[in-house]
Specification:
Its main location: membrane. The chain has one domain (53-149, 156-268, 343-581): Growth Hormone, Chain: A (Up-down Bundle). It is globular and about 80 Å long. The protein has 593 residues and is an all-alpha fold. The protein is built from 19 helices and no strands. Helix 7 packs antiparallel against helix 14 (388-413), helix 7 packs antiparallel against helix 16 and helix 12 (344-365) packs parallel to helix 18.
């Protein structure tokens, strides 16, 4: 894939690529734009090669990072083989979700300041430890359950041992969540910074996010086909959990180490220089203030520090120019973080993301038990029941297609701001680059959020109960809506608040879905478990006890939860609309989005 084109140079400079254009503040007069010297040509080819290898490395990382999205492939096995309740199964999914989202601001901060390679190496360690521990915990817990006496066969004293292995499983999924977050952030930040300054910024962000969504599709097929259980007592399509976890541990350690070597941010110094110049042009920053002792910009968050040249004299381990560039980078990034946190529309937008993504996460995590509830054992069905792996793949395909589609369409139809960095001064533009009336990225976001809610309401209404062959309508709509929202949100962040501090900004917003996924996972668990208890008390089960007491069949197992989730998405649409069109929102401030 060819690198994405970059925006032409700043006013007064030659319109050339960043690899060959002079610095924004050259210390010597720029050379006449003529034939490139051999040295400049070699540097241009070298930078192009670095961009390409970084892009390939980011795509490989993203294509493998989404292993947690196939939790529903083996989540029902925890119920049937380990006799976990729905609350326990959701406890594992919630542990992974919380660990995947809560550390994102810290990991984004590290990515912006130390680079994506560090995060990729961290992901390798977390994935290796997490999946290895999960494999051990599952095998030991299965042995403990195997020693359980039959119903009415006497007391069982294995509760404490079973609890210890469950705690190990929770810790393992916490490590898996952190690994997912680290690998995903390193891939998306690399593409956003290397290719997100041109007119194809939407596609630059959408491609790795789409690859992340695609990872669930191919991993679910590998798990259900190559790692299908060989035990004759298991159901068709059930995964051999231990072997699959070992495979994931080996694969993701290898990908994480490769990413640590291949993920690079190209010409980051130029990016910071351009950000400083854009901010100075806005009138909010005085370039001399950066190195003025004790000076802080009013309301913009510049760091108060002593004279950095005094620090340079004391620090003999670094070159003065290198140290100055590092201080300038920290100053700009910290200033932009403060600006981001003090923008009230950001908080409204983040809450909208919270109410949209939480229901989608809960659906994906619990899809396996929802599908099982569609087929009560008391009824006879023609043909084979639909499988969880099929719908994990449908979610992956529709999610990937929606991400690529929205990234491409917003590049073609949405307005683009004049600046490539944080939008501060009004920059009105209702027409696209082709002169036609443009369509805002927020319009796309709201439209796909409504598709997400349509899928949730279709499930809640009983459309697919006893008709598993219709479930593709639900998984397809939810997958498309979920994927588009997860793609458009970071794209909007790059358009409004720039790319140089993208990992930190996106990390702050991406933290919110952790609470949403946990909240709706608990709501679904409560509804499901209440239905299972009602069936058990009324004699609706098959009388086997144990496993059967934890299972629920019928619309009452899920309908109330998914009606509430649909309402949550509608509330989210209202919050995003307020951030866009409300008082002192983006539209009133002349921010192009």
């Amino acid at each position: 894939m060819a690198p994405f084109p970059n925006r032409p140079g700043t006013p007064g400079a030659a319109d050339s690529s960043p690899e060959t254009s002079p610095l924004l503040r050259p210390t010597s007069p720029p050379s006449t734009p003529s034939t490139l010297s051999p040295t400049a040509s070699l540097r241009s080819r070298s930078l192009r090669f670095l961009r390409t290898t970084s892009l390939l490395s980011a795509l490989v990382s993203a294509l493998c990072a989404g292993s947690i999205t196939i939790f529903s492939l083996y989540g029902a096995t925890f119920q049937s083989r380990l006799h976990y309740s729905q609350f326990r199964v959701n406890g594992l999914a919630s542990a992974a979700s919380i660990a995947m989202y809560v550390p994102v601001p810290l990991l984004g901060y590290l990515c912006d300041r130390a680079g994506p390679a560090l995060l990729s190496l961290l992901a390798a360690g977390m994935f290796g430890a997490g999946y290895s521990a999960a494999a051990v915990g599952y095998e030991r817990a299965k042995e403990v359950v195997g020693r359980m006496p039959p119903v009415g066969g006497g007391d069982w004293k294995g509760e404490e041992e079973e609890r210890r292995w469950y705690v190990l499983m929770v810790l393992a999924f916490v490590a898996i969540g952190i690994g997912t977050c680290s690998m995903y952030m390193s891939a998306v930040a690399t593409c956003a910074k290397n290719f997100g300054r041109g007119k194809h910024r939407g596609l630059a962000v959408a491609v790795p996010i789409a690859a992340f969504g695609l990872s669930g599709m191919w991993l679910s097929q590998v798990g259900s086909r190559l790692f299908a259980s060989r035990d004759a007592s298991t159901e068709e399509g059930e995964v051999d959990v231990v072997r699959f976890f070992v495979f994931l541990a080996v694969l993701l350690v290898a990908v994480g180490v490769a990413g640590a070597l291949g993920l690079k941010i190209v010409d980051e110094e130029d990016l910071i220089e351009e950000a400083v110049e854009e901010l100075e042009r806005s009138g909010l920053l005085d370039g001399s203030a950066m190195f003025t002792p004790g000076r802080s910009e009013n309301g913009y968050g510049a760091i108060e520090r002593g004279d950095p040249f005094d620090q340079l004299e004391d620090a003999n381990t670094k070159d003065p120019a290198e140290e100055e560039a590092l201080l300038k980078k920290q100053w700009v990034l910290n200033a932009e973080t403060r600006r981001f946190l003090t923008d009230h529309t950001m908080w409204c937008f983040a809450l909208g993301f919270f109410f949209m993504i939480g229901p989608g996460e809960a659906f994906i995590n619990n899809m396996g038990t929802v599908i099982k509830s569609l087929y009560p054992p008391t009824l006879h069905y023609e043909g084979k029941p639909t499988s969880t792996a099929t719908h994990v793949s449908i979610v992956g395909i529709t999610s990937t297609a929606a991400r690529l589609l929205t990234g491409t369409l917003t590049d073609l139809l949405a307005p683009s701001p004049k600046a490539r960095h944080i939008q501060i001064t009004p920059s009105r533009g209702l027409l696209g680059s082709n002169g036609r009336l443009s369509v805002s990225r927020v319009t796309f976001l709201l439209a796909f959020a409504l598709l997400l809610s349509l899928g949730l309401t279709g499930l809640a209404s009983g459309l697919v109960q006893n008709h598993g062959d219709r479930f593709w309508l639900v998984s397809g709509l939810v997958g498309a809506g979920y994927g588009a929202v997860f793609s458009l949100t970071p794209i909007i962040i790059t358009v409004i608040w720039g790319v140089e501090n993208f990992a930190t900004n996106w990390g702050i917003v991406a933290m919110f879905p952790a609470l949403g996924a946990t909240l709706w996972g608990l709501v679904y668990s409560a509804v499901y478990q209440a239905g299972a208890k009602r069936e058990a008390s009324s004699g609706g089960g098959s009388g086997r006890g144990g496993e059967e007491e934890n299972l629920c069949y019928g619309q009452e197992c899920y309908a109330p939860a998914f009606w509430a989730m649909a309402a949550s998405v509608w509330i989210a649409c209202g919050l995003v609309l307020w951030a866009w069109k409300g008082r002192n929102g983006w539209a009133q401030r002349g921010i192009v989005v």
